[in-house]
Amino acid sequence: MRLETAKYLYDVQSAADRLADFVDGRDWDHYLHNAMLRAAVERQFEIIGEALSQLGRRDPDLLARIDDHRRIIAFRNILIHGYANVDDALVWDIVQSRLGPLRRQIDALLHGMG
Predict the structure, then answer these.
(1) What is the DSSP code string of the chain?
(2) What is the mean pLDDT of each successive set of 10 residues along the chain, which is 114 residues long?
């Protein structure tokens, strides 16, 4: 795996780790009523989606090994371009249900690099 490819995986890993730290110990009510937390979470999802998009340009075969990569990139586009209509409940649900599996998958890919 090329260094450039590893960099994008590391960017995903770093943003996902920050996301997990941001929401650690928080619940839906706290998320809903904390604009700074919502902005921080959305920003990390934007980074994850952009890093995967860039990864796909350089190593489409590796990107294909990441579950839901198309949906993650599309989610990034919604956050960027549809910012006025972001569904906070959907973002929170993704944090709760999909962040963990993504983190494990990216960690496994990075550890497989050696």
Answers:
(1) --HHHHHHHHHHHHHHHHHHHHHTT--HHHHHT-HHHHHHHHHHHHHHHHHHHHHHHH-HHHHTTSTTHHHHHHHHHHHHHSGGG--HHHHHHHHHHHHHHHHHHHHHHHHHT-
(2) 88 98 98 98 98 97 97 97 94 97 97 77
Residues shown for the chain: 114
Q: Is the pTM of this model over 0.90?
A: yes
Residue type, position 107, single letter: D
Contact 48, 78 (CB under 8 A): no
